[in-house]
Design brief:
mainly alpha, flat
Length: 212
């Protein structure tokens, strides 16, 4: 029970570092429906558990190799840039004058869009690997205890995002559509900016590797 609480508290603490995925999910909830938001939360949770499982299995060590890390870094950066561009294009190209209701929801699209957005940052596995290695040393966790810790850490994702989605869904009617559009455009800009920074950094590291 203590291990589960430790993992849950660690996961909730990590969730406080709100990023583009959070805002994208909130945007989906406000534009479409509560179900779309919850499905999106499920997608993030599945990806987190996928990376947590790989981290526990120790596969994250593979991604620490320079060449593999470089390839994943470049590909994921390009995906983020494209994703950000699509978001902005869809918002600017649309003509939304009223709040979008549940009839316009597309649960499958909501799930896939958030799933690919989340999984496009494969360096997350390196982060989880480092986290679990630290906890294993700090508390002398066994593989079984790390599994419990990982399960509770991942549950924090669903808990935090799920509650956030429900809250924003309840107050959604009071939020002007212009604010929702601005929120989505901001997410797109953040994704493009983040992707460009990561891409330039990875390309720079590639050049340094060649010159060595």
């Amino acid at each position: 029970m203590k291990i589960f609480k430790n993992g849950l508290s660690t996961g909730l603490l990590l969730q406080l570092a709100i990023g583009p995925v959070f805002f994208f999910i909130i945007g989906l909830t406000l534009e479409r429906s509560l179900l779309d938001g919850l499905v999106a939360v499920l997608a993030v949770t599945i990806v987190d558990y996928f990376y947590i499982a790989l981290a526990i299995l120790g596969i994250g060590k593979i991604l620490e190799k320079k060449k593999v890390k470089k390839i994943f870094g470049i590909l994921s950066s390009i995906v983020l840039i494209i994703f950000g561009g699509i978001i902005i294009k869809d918002i600017i190209g649309s003509d939304i004058s009223v709040a979008v209701n549940a009839d316009s929801s597309n649960l499958f699209t909501s799930f896939l869009s958030v799933f690919f957005l989340t999984i496009s940052s494969p360096m997350t596995i390196v982060f989880f690997t480092s986290l679990f290695a630290t906890k294993a040393l700090e508390y002398n966790y066994t593989k079984r205890e790390l599994l419990i810790f990982g399960l509770s850490t991942g549950s924090a994702t669903f808990l935090f995002l799920g509650i956030s989605v429900i809250i924003f869904s309840l107050i959604g009617g009071a939020i002007p559509i212009s604010v929702i559009r601005l929120l989505n455009i901001l997410v797109g800009i953040l994704l493009i900016g983040y992707g460009l920074v990561r891409l330039l950094k990875n390309l720079k590291n590639s050049e340094e590797m060649v010159n060595e």
